[in-house]
What we know:
Elements: H1 2-5, E1 28-33, H2 40-46, E2 55-58, H3 65-74, H4 95-100, E3 104-112, E4 117-118, E5 122-123, E6 135-144, H5 157-161, E7 168-169, H6 182-185, H7 188-206, E8 211-212, H8 215-219, E9 225-228, H9 229-240, E10 256-262, E11 265-271, H10 272-293, E12 305-309, H11 321-338, E13 344-349, H12 357-364, E14 374-377, H13 378-381, E15 402-406, H14 415-418
Helix pairs in contact: 9-11, 10-11, 11-12
Amino acid sequence: MTESLARLRVRPPSPRLPWTAPRSDELVDSTLARTGTSDVRRHYLASYADEPGPVLAMSPFLPGGVDMAEHLMTNKRDVAIGAKFVGGKDSIITNMEGAAHTFLCALVPIKMHGDYGFRRFHSVPPFPSSPSAPYKLCRHVLLSTTIHPDFEQNNVFVPLLALSEDEVQGADVGLEFAIAKPEEKWDERKRKGYEDKLRKHLIYHLTSVRSLPSSTSVNNDPHAVIWSIDDAIARLTETLSSPPSETPILSPLINHYVLTSSPRRPTKLLSLEMLLNTYVASLVNEFSALEALCPLSSTPNLGGYIYTFDPPSIFAASFDATLLNRLMIYALRLVASTNALPGLKVFAFNDYADFAALRLLNLALRAEGTKHVAVMSRKRLFSGRGETLATKDAIPQVEGATLVIHNNSDAFGQNIAQAG
Length: 420
């Protein structure tokens, strides 16, 4: 199961691709006048029809396929929100559809008028322009909307992964699957049936035995592995600390579970196999697209992409961010052991809260097809003047490469258009 999920769907660039990835190491003129009061966000929202559209990368098992992708990409609410499906006519995407959105990634070239950084607070200082320049400067980058598994509250990924008193047999929804109408989602009984169907579909595609056992059977199973969150972090860190030469094959975590605990929430057993496979599928979607969109150039040292990763914070509020980091790195190591990633030049991880991650990432990318990748902190990547992207003199891999950034949003809010 995990091994088959980890295979990239890579194809060379073709005329069917709507655009070529930009190089990000040079600042260029934008279409926004240097003088005047035009706001950057307002300018691009007003002219979005002139901008290139996204490339969508989705798992083959996304329920409803293209129809679900269109639904998820066009029916989001217009704010960044904590509560997900709350009922009423502004709730059209359900919690389990939101979980399914993790298996859909949109990538689109955008223009940044400054490099984002956390300088006591979130900020994007504008690039300085020459007083004689007619237009403001910008950096062309590639925005990836890869979604973190949503643990902001207990209503998206927790119910997907949690064991109950009864075994749940997974079931593929089939080619005839129809997305529920909004009025059906507003009916609690119909919505529950629809959510159960989606959950069983994801269970079918994310578990080796196509089902989730009951919590009682797992507690009575001498072969089941049940970890606390701290134990899970320690065990996964220990495994990931072993070089690939010593541990060439990682366990797919079948029959492994983590016990959540909270003073205000009931204890639950969550499937680590499903969560690991979620990360594997998500990475495969993104890297399959990036390898096709950002190939190495025939000119030496040019082309390829610089990948940045910011670990979850808000989206780990009801779980544990460090454990999610370990599972992402574990999944990355599985993907790297199965595929070459020639276009990946830099993997920059924001290690502000997880100082062990860079060492584990270095080991994860030591496989034959990824040993060329430079692993570094996000802070080092943006070590240029004013915390901007470093120059090629400081980091040679930057030359001619595409910078891949993430909006780190969820499946429910139009953060790019509406958030400040």
